[in-house]
Amino acid sequence: MSTSDNARTYPTRPYLAVSAAVFRDGRVLIVRRGRPPAHGLYTLPGGGVELGETLEQAVIREVREETGLAIAPLGLVGFREAIARDAAARVERHFVILPFAAYWVGGEIALSEELAEAHWLKPDELDGLKTTEGLAEIVAAAAERIALAQASAR
What's the rounded Cα separation, in Å, for the pair 23 and 9? Predict the structure, then answer.
């Protein structure tokens, strides 16, 4: 565990993170986390914003590091707060996550050690998966944002 991972357990403040609903041919990239936080859950690729990075730079870097894919972020599609407490009700982790709608630009999936699997799914194929809270709503908002951008480009 790196120093920054260690600092994120029992933090003294919330940590800022980004994620991306990456669309390719009408399908969204869904990943299953291979380690905490959210171990075993299906979610979007993403991670922490580093000092000096813009949100767009962070989401591009995180998706590339976790999946090997190049993306073009379109814009924010909401926010999520992930707060985990231990048995004594102490805050074990606290993330504020800003999800982006994004287009796939290039590359093929090459998973990092953080991810157990990845799939390109139609947004309605999320039903039945054990996901992070609010994933379906974020994917729906991102799909709408992508559709609006495509319609205005015509």
Answer: 32
The structure's pTM equals: 0.91
The predicted-structure confidence for 9-44, as pLDDT tens digits, reads as follows 899 999 999 999 999 999 999 999 999 888 999 999
Rounded Cα–Cα distance for residues 30 and 120 (Å): 6
Residue 95 carries which side chain, given as an amino acid letter? F
Residue 87 is which amino acid? A
Locate all alpha helices (DSSP H) within the chain, ordered by sequence: 3-7, 55-67, 135-153
CA distance 92 to 88: 10
d(CA 138, CA 123) in angstroms, rounded, equals 10
The tokens describing 12, both together, are 């003294």
Place of tokens 């039945």: 128
Longest dimension (CA), the chain: 55
Please list the residues that pair with 33 across neighbouring strands: 115
Q: How far apart are the C-alpha atoms of 22 and 146, rounded to whole Å?
A: 10
Q: Which residues contact 60 (CB under 8 A, 6 or more apart)?
A: 70, 71, 73
